[in-house]
User: Fold these one by one.
Assistant:
Number 1:
Amino acid sequence: MLNTNADASARYVHPLVQITYDRTVFEDLETRIERNGPWDNWTLYRLALEAEQASLVTDFHELLCLRTLPAFEPMPHQIEAARKVLHEMRGRAILADEVGLGKTIEAGLILKEYWVRGLVRKALILVPSSLVLQWVRELAQKFDLPAVPHKKMHSWQQDLVVASIDTAKREPNRSLLLDREYDLVIVDEAHKLKNKKTSNYQFVSELRKKYCLLLTATPVQNDLDELYNLITLLKPGQLGEEGEFNANYVQGKRLVKNEEKLQANLGQLMIRNRRQDGGVQFTRRCVTTVPLTLSPEEMALYQGVTDYIREHARAENGDMASMLSLVTLQREVCSSRDAVFLTLVNLFKKTPEHSPLRARIWELVELIRRITANTKAEKTMELLREIGDKAIVFTEYRLTQDYLLRFFQEHGIQAVPYRGGMNRGRKDWMMDLFRNRAQVLVATEAGGEGINLQFCHHVINFDLPWNPMRVEQRIGRVHRLGQSRDVHIFNLCTLGTIEEHILHLLHEKINLFESVIGELDDIVHELEQVQSWDRQVAQMVLESANDQELRERLDRLGDSMQTARRLSGQGARST
Amino acid sequence: MNAKKVQNFVLAYIEATGCQLIEKSPGHVTVKLSPAADRALSGRPFYWSFIDSTGTPPETLTYTWMFEKSPPPEPGAKSTPLSSLMSAGGRTIREQMYFGSRRLAQLFDAVREAGRCTMMFEEAPRNRRTPLESTPYTAWLGVNFKVAYVCDMKREALHEWGISLATGNIDEMFGRRLAGTRLTPRLPPNVHLLRNGLSLRKGLSQLEQALERKLKAQNFDWAIEAEQRRQEEQERIAQYYGPKLSRAAEDPEQTAALNARLAQRQDEIDWQYRPRIEVSVLSCGLFHLAGLD
């Protein structure tokens, strides 16, 4: 930490300013004179001075990092963000840009600037484990910074270490890190720190640090306690003492009073760029709905499952958990028989041996046996041949993923899998294979997070998640900063099924695919106050007597989303 | 430092360290490192300890350094440090060398390490009146100081000063004087060295005192502003922890925990903001220059 020598020999050049000397090199000269050499080469002596002149930080404010970057141009809003953090927020800030605007770049610029100036020599970067290698790579490629991923205990000795927060907070790492001093600590996905009772929060709070950057895309304005906690981590007291804060700003859990004053206060330590603020140009999204008619065998299964669910839903009488799993069954039928088969088998096993339901379930399994072809998979093949370029096929279900991989292989299309359960090395390997060899990446939902695939511009939604946020995350992997071409999105939709309704909601009501919805996360969060999105939709599906009613209820959900969006748009303009 | 300057720097380094120049164009240079340069740059401590302990002749690495920036490699492509590890053994390692690149930073570190203490003599004046006349030489202590003005921000200045160990005269333009002087590592003929009036230590401390006098006359607004920020922050956390501490007055355990947290934050704030000046001697040397001054 700061060397505050209070001894009598401390020298001051100003009442506030102590002066200290590092004379190591001079002492070296004395020794060499005593021993009559050896003397350093005169050219090297001059070069050393030239190196110092070139690296000299001659100004408090200039962004030196911009001169020293490899051929990589940050965007204006990123440079502005870095400047603000360095000169106004003094190195302690929350970077809360919307997804895809480059929070990592901003953090990299700030780190590089401090690095070049010698203000940061030791930094710790805490990120979710799936992002460790990506951070290391970005820092190396875009900023030429020698960051290393944490692997063994001795990795902590390095100057720039990227580690997962879960690893870092575990013993023996924890004690070791808490004994150190870090010039800079960066926490990615900092919304995981919002609860001050968690071990993550305690750990980051106890780390000794000079500068600190918290990165989060999830706006915390929705929950004032969480916001207060995050800010307390950076600058305790910025929003006043807890009681004071509550008296000044809080009306209800999510209700703010004195909004303007709060925003002004937040502006002193939080940066939030939005897509709608302009200045950031995205390529277009072209959306195609691909309607499909199920084969008679597939339709028979769908009907069978739907009837089963209707009957059963009434029998279960409001047990939400088991009802949800029933709706899953219906969604799986629309994906692949493999997906629904496993669920049915599990359901069969769980059902008591003498229950009449067992026979019903077995009937459904029999229906599966009759299916010989997957209409959607065949359509996807057709699409892929037409596209003739790299494409990502997203599915919600692991078994559909396996099926598709087999299916593509049989038809001579190179495809690789990607899913959340894979370890880091395997994920990276799959990315490399997709980039260099395979035409298709078949990804499950978990694969949607934390990967950047700007070199690909075709996305096929084999089936759709219900939550608009998750759909946006899928598309966001491809349609983000750095994508130079228009992105084509294909939504496969089986007619006369639940999929048709969901697509209607997401595509026509919410208009999710064409435009990037600013503040989408805010809006969904807002609508989820009472109940999660998926549950709301599932409940509508179960409770609606017929398609007509379901369509109407989904429309109402879409309308309330549009309203929330308009309000949020106004809110954004007024701040 | 533009590409041209970087190139000149690298070429001077190559020559000074005895590396073998294989190929050169305006945009690149290919070079087989000398053992000294390889030790400093290749990052192979185990290899070199093996060579040193077995006496095997070393095989140094060959690099191609390109001076123009080009776009970063595709994501996923192997980055510099990896490729340099994998291509040891005869192959040429291609790298970008620009201001800000890791390799140039490493070169900077290498010259800082290898060019910090020197002893040089001014070459004898050419046209002497009589060959037997002896020229008096004065010993100068030349010191390159870096002055860093630090708070939550930082600015630096370089001072290339010298002091005559004979007379105590201080030359604030000593760097320029050296640049205009022809120097040699060997004592020229027909030269006599004057007695020093000052010890080396004394010389340095007089230079430091002169530096401090100069610094004291400078503008300290930066420090005053930083101190204001520091105090604001300190007040803010005092206001934050004050009520908490009084509420916890009954509970010694909680009070201790709060005090520890408060002390940590106070230290962090001082560390971040307290204005200070850090002077370091970057390099220094003993210079025997013609004349009596």
Note: Chain A has 24 helices and 15 strands.
Number 2:
Amino acid sequence: MRGRTPWGLAVPAVAGMAFLVLPLAGLLVRAPWPTLLVRLAEPRVVEALRLSLLTATAATALCLVLGVPLAWLLARAAFPGRGLVRALVTVPLVLPPVVGGVALLLVFGRNGLAGRWFAGVFSLPFTTAGVVVAEAFVAMPFLVISVEGTLRAADLRYEEAAATLGASRWTVFRRVTLPLVAPGVTAGAVLCWARALGEFGATITFAGNFPGTTQTMPLAVYLALENDPDAAIVLSLVLLAVCVAVLAALRDRWIRA
Amino acid sequence: MAAVLSARLVVERDGFLLDVSIEAAAGEVVALLGPNGAGKTTALRALAGLVRLSRGEIVLDGEAIHEHPAERRSVGMVFQDYLLFPHLSALDNVAFGPRCQGTPKARARDQARDWLERVGLGAHLHARPRELSGGQAQRVALARALAVRPRLLLLDEPLAALDAHTRLEVRAGLRRHLEDFGGATVLVTHDPLDAMVLADRLVVVENGAIVQQGSPAEVARQPRTDYVARLVGLNLYRGVAAGHRVTIAGALTLSAAEELSGPVFVAFPPSAVALFRTRPDGTPRNTWAATIAGVERHGDQFRVSLDGPLSVSADVTAAAVADLGLLPAQEVWVAVKATETHAYPA
């Protein structure tokens, strides 16, 4: 038999739950339901949503290409300073995104450390590609940490079995390791995508706020709040719906654990 | 027969030293037998290239391969828990090796189908490993290892993960496939029955070193360590022989069937031991007083362990236990038939 819950815990627990749930409920209550469909079809909303989905997906792809090998290195390779590298990789998790944006400007900006080199060829800041870079910068740690954890938990003996069957290291990675850690990669990619979708600070700092090129959903929400609060609510609802869908997709992995 | 495999394996790790030499001819099955932690699996992993040699060499078909990585050795390995890739069907598990060797996908799958049919799994080509029974998974693992057409086949406790009934069937099947295999086979087991049934030659490993080797019959008849004696169910002692008389230091003198001189082993089965309440009349040879240390059921007999000048196991019938009223700490007289007491040079 379970003991009764003490009041000292029950009251703050209920208050905590209300604190988390009420703002979302407020969003639903204040939503302009009758005009919702019309507003959703507004070019500004459609444009921001399209841009957000496009850049978040591209940022996730970039994170997969760079982050999975990085996670493999952190999980499997022994090299000096590995602990330091792991710490550095997680910095964007705690760094205020605005600071990330400023840092990206200093490196990739027109007069930045790296930007200077290819100034004549192309420029990242204030472009759609810049949005992707800003989102990837902030979201990659989610992917790396998730994939690294799965790699560490994976049974190395399958890779040994593959080696005795004549598989090269690359074949082992491609045909054995990657399929075995696929659930971790998927979960990491979904988290990474959700984080990229909600990215605000680094994006507005590094890529600006130009409708059609760099104005993603979160930026559009913030801007709409000034002159058209109902539009802000509609945009927020769309983002909320996406987040709920992501949580539902990861239900087995994260919530039941 | 020319040796397909000729290896000296020295692996030093965390204070443990493995130093064994293993040879195997074409078609020969060599079993490494030994207690847990003896270094058998380490030896197998060294042959496969999964553990680096500290010293020594591995020569396979005249070529030194110990510097080659695992993927470049002509070696197939069946792991203790099989390690079938869970994301691939039985067919693709078996086709994995040929694919890695550069066989086109369709051909590799044809070969895999042949192998699976050969081990009797033609009806389970597309099953995932989790859908297979233990015995089936074992056969897929064997087919997967053989499909790379290795010169050396390694089996790590191939039957340990199976229940007793399946084990019987799989053991018989495995023996048949090993007979068909043209290369050398090294298998690791701690089960004497597996070793006796499957192997042409036994190599007994204890604490990282070989303590005895020979044909299964030789090893079973003339064990040279307590571990082997226990496995094959014999009482074993070291002594010094002078004619038929063998003196066991600090204990007593036994009469043996053989006539020898110098250091010897002397062994007799628990069934050659008879127990009496009082000193038996007649033949005074191989008789001494002992104390009962314990009584356990052993098949349809009872195994009595005895303390005294020698620690001895005796097998007696249930009737004898009742007649003698055998209880721990009780004094009894032990008699061992000289004709079943065998001595052989140490």
Note: The mean pLDDT of chain B is 91.
